[in-house]
């Protein structure tokens, strides 16, 4: 059947070659600035294509995140909540599929027509709010955003980025300086968070804004809140049966990071040719690991930038 997805994808080079270029974090791909945010060309092609082609499903839930803020955790939680009557934990898809594959990305698989016909109304994206496809904004689908302390998100990014270096790894200091300038894939970090924060203040029924640290501290409260918001509330019977607790345990860092599929599995990449390890998404899973990496001066510098950028918004880390 001829549809949007069976048409060949244009390469969008005419758009990309006109864009400002930024330091690429020692990757072999440039970063380009498009609508105020930085992308490599494969990411950007996905974003532009998604803006032109993506159509949400009826009752879609879209998980939106800045990278390294808990995307995989949120994917596992939302997927387990949504499919809890379809699967039990002994034969669950997350036992054999990494969360990043289990829930597709709009700008990768969806925009390219891969896995476009989804079984469940759940997908995800790193696209900033202001660049989301209009089809999402104008639909009645729900958006869940998760953000994280920028110092921890940065440290996690630095490890992640160094899986893809071209000639040599990027030093922590150089990566930090670029992060503080806002030059980072899908960055600036603060604009990404702020846009979703403001949109969720305006439309709290459409956008749920979550923080990694809050879920860590009180998982039961936030998992119930997430289920309510998604339209899959837990019944009294389910709560009495410990269903919330089971989902939290199943999606915990300890459980997921110890599954064989997440220890030795491989994922496809748009950044490098070939595959990269699924374990890239399961490093430490802790709050505050930045203290083991950043000097006091570095932490103060980023804190000051974030304070200034978020000033008056009500959003705090
Ligand atoms: P660290 O590098 O600080 O350990 P993303 O999924 O957005 O790429 O984010 C990855 C970060 O989330 C990594 O942080 C990773 O360890 C952490 N993470 C992955 N699964 C998690 C889970 N189930 N619970 C808590 N944190 C998790």
TrEMBL record:
It is an enzyme of class 2 (transferase). Residues 58-314 form the Sulfotransferase domain. The keyword Transcription regulation does not apply. SUPFAM superfamilies: P-loop containing nucleoside triphosphate hydrolases (SSF52540). InterPro entries: P-loop_NTPase, Sulfotransferase_dom. Its EC number is 2.8.2.-. GO terms for molecular function: sulfotransferase activity. Keywords: Transferase. Belongs to the sulfotransferase 1 family. This is Sulfotransferase. It comes from Dillenia turbinata.
């Amino acid at each position: 059947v001829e549809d949007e997805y069976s048409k060949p994808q244009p390469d969008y080079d005419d758009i990309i070659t006109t864009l400002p270029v930024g330091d690429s974090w020692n990757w072999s791909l440039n970063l380009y600035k498009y609508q105020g945010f930085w992308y490599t060309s494969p990411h950007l092609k996905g974003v532009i294509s998604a803006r032109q082609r993506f159509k949400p499903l009826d009752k879609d839930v879209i998980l939106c995140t800045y990278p390294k803020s808990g995307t995989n955790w949120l994917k596992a939680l939302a997927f387990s909540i949504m499919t809890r009557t379809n699967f039990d934990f002994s034969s669950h898809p997350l036992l054999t599929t990494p969360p990043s594959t289990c829930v597709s990305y709009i700008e990768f698989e969806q925009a390219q027509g891969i896995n476009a016909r989804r079984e469940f109304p759940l997908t995800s994206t790193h696209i900033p709010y202001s660049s989301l496809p209009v089809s999402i904004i104008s639909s009645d689908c729900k958006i869940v955003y998760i953000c994280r302390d920028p110092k921890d998100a940065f440290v996690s990014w630095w490890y992640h980025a160094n899986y893809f270096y071209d000639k040599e790894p990027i030093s922590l200091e150089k990566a930090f300086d670029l992060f503080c300038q806002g030059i980072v894939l899908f960055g600036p970090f603060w604009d990404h968070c702020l846009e979703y924060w403001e949109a969720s203040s305006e439309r709290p029924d459409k956008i749920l804004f979550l923080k990694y640290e809050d879920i860590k501290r009180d998982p039961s409260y936030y998992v119930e809140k997430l289920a309510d918001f998604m339209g899959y509330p837990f019944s009294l019977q389910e709560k009495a049966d410990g269903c919330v607790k089971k989902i939290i345990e199943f999606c915990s860092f300890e459980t997921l990071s110890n599954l064989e599929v997440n220890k030795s599995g491989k994922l496809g990449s748009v950044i490098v040719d070939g595959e990269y390890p699924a374990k890239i998404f399961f490093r430490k899973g802790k709050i505050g690991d930045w203290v083991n990496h950043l000097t006091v001066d570095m932490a103060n510098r980023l804190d000051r930038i974030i304070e200034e950028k978020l000033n008056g918004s009500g959003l705090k880390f």
